[in-house]
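Colleagues,

For the teaching module next term, I've prepared a clean inverse folding example: a structure given as tokens, and then the sequence designed for it. I'd like students to try predicting residues themselves before seeing the answer, so please don't circulate the second half yet.
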């Protein structure tokens, strides 16, 4: 399931593997989307955890 609608461009996309969720904030440009997706891919510090952030 993809959940869109988060409004802050400061957030990066987030995946909760155990819940099958992909959180994708709205971005104003395709360039900003690409930048944030690449940042999320390279920042996988939470991999292996099944805890959504609060």
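(Answer key — instructors only)
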């Amino acid at each position: 399931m993809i959940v869109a609608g988060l409004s802050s461009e400061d957030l990066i996309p987030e995946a909760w593997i155990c819940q099958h969720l992909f959180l994708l904030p709205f971005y104003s440009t395709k360039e900003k989307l690409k930048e944030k997706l690449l940042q999320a891919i390279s920042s996988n510090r939470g991999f292996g955890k099944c805890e959504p952030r609060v």
